[in-house]
Amino acid sequence: MKFVGKNAVVYGAGVSGLSAYQLLREKGAKAIIYDDNPDADKATDSMSVVNAADIIVLSPGVDGRKDFLLDAKLENKLVIGELELASECCAAEQIAITGTNGKTTTTMLIDRILRRAGKSSYAVGNIGTPFSAIADKLDATEIAVIEASSFQLESSIKFSPDTAVILNIKPDHLERHGSLEKYAAAKANIFLNQGEQDFVVYNADDGIIADLVPKMVARKVPFSTSRPVKGGAYVSSGFICFDGKPILSLEETDMKGAEIENILAAVCVCMTHGVSVYNIAAGIMEFERPKYRRQYLGSINEIKVYNDSKSTNVSACISACNGIEGDCVLILGGAKRNEDFDSLFNSLTDNIKAITVSGENSSEILKSAKNAGFESITEYADIKSALRGAYDIAKENGYINILFSPSSKSYDKFSSYEMRGKHFDACFNALRLEV
Q: Which 3-state string (H, E, C) describes the chain?
C-alpha cells in the first residue's frame, strides 16, 4: 500500500487515531485528523477534508456504516481501519487474537511466554498500546501480538495475520453490529484473508466458531476443554496437553473456568512457534492476571473480595463465577445494553448465594432474577452501597467471597471498565477502613 503524496484522513482523534495520523505522516501521506467533536486534539470537523481524501482510516470507535463513509467507498476511496493500516506498515510476524471474552489475558499470556523463550515480542492493539504506534518500528525478527476487537476487525479488507486466534463468540456489542451474525462475521475477518501457510487457532467447543471452520484456509489448530483434539490443546486427567504431550497440571495455575481456554489458546500458539514445553509451563505459572479480570483485592474480616470490572457481558460474568470457590455474594449492574440476564440466572453456579445490584439496568436484572426464582437479590443506589450490602450479607451468613462482576458495560456512570474498576478499588479500601 503506497502512502506517499496521498491525501489521508484519520477519522477519530483518540489514542489509536493519533497514532495512525503519525504513522501516515511518517509514510509520506498528507494526513489530517477528522473528528465529530470540533474540540478534539489536532482534529477538524470540516467535511471538506473527508471529501478530498484518497484514504480514510477509521479509529476503532468509529462506526463504518455512516452514510458519508459508504459514499466514499462507492467513489473507490480506500476506507480501512487503524488495525489494517498498522499491519500493512509492519514487517514483523503478526499474531492476532480476538474473541468476546479473554482477549487481553490471552494476548498478555502469549506475549509473556514468547518473551520468556527469548523472542522479541510486543503486545499491542486493543490491549492499550495502538498497533500503529510501533508498527513501522518492528523488523522481521520480531513479533507483534495483537489484541483485535470486533470494532477493529469489521473494517478489515486485507488484514491477514500469520497466526489468527479466535477464542469464543458470545452476544456482545449488538448495538454496534446489529445482529449476532454480523458480529460473528466481523470476528471472522481475523482469518478470512489468511493463506495455507498461516495458522488459525480456534475454540473447538464454540458452536458459532464451528460454523466458521469450513471458511478457514490456514492450518487449523483447535483447542478444547471438553475432549482431546488432534493437533491441538486440551485438558486430560487434570493436565493441559498438546497433541498427546502433557504441558502442566491445572493445579499449577490459578486460572479457572473459561480462563482455561485462554491457556489452551496460548499453548497452541506457542507450540506452533517452537517454544519449549518448559518455557510454556513456566510462563503460565509466572503469569499474573490482568487488572480487573477476577482480580483478588484482599479480604475484609476474612471475606475475600474480587474485582472483575472487565465483566462487561453475561458470558464474562458466568466465567468469573465459575472461577470462585466457596459461597459468594455477586455484585451486578451497569449500563443498559440489552444483555440477556435470563441466561445469566439460568447459568449461575450454586455457590452464588446472594446478589446486590446497582446501575442503569437494575430493573432488568431484578426482572430476570424474579423470572428465575432467585430471591436473594437487593438493589442499591450505587456501587459503594452495593459493596457494603454484599459485605453485610456475607458476614451475616458466613459467605467467604464477594465478587464484583457487573455483567454490563460501564457507560451508565464511567467512561470505561478501567475507571469503574478503580472506583470499586476505592470503595473496597474505604470499606476495609470503615469496618
A: CCCCCCEEEEECCCHHHHHHHHHHHHCCCEEEEECCCCCCCCEECCHHHHHCCCEEEECCCCCCCCHHHHHHHHCCCEEEEHHHHHHHCCCCEEEEEECCCCHHHHHHHHHHHHHHCCCCEEEEECCCCCHHHHHHHCCCCCEEEEECCHHHHCCCCCCCCCEEEECCCCCCCHHHHCCHHHHHHHHHCCCCCCCCCCEEEEECCCHHHHHHHHHCCCEEEEEECCCCCCCCEEEECCEEEECCEEEEEHHHCCCCCCHHHHHHHHHHHHHHCCCCHHHHHHHHHHCCCCCCCCEEEEEECCEEEEECCCCCCHHHHHHHHHCCCCCEEEEECCCCCCCCHHHHHHHCCCCEEEEEECCCCHHHHHHHHHHHCCCCEEECCCHHHHHHHHHHHHHHHCCCEEEECCCCCCCCCCCCHHHHHHHHHHHHHHHHHHC
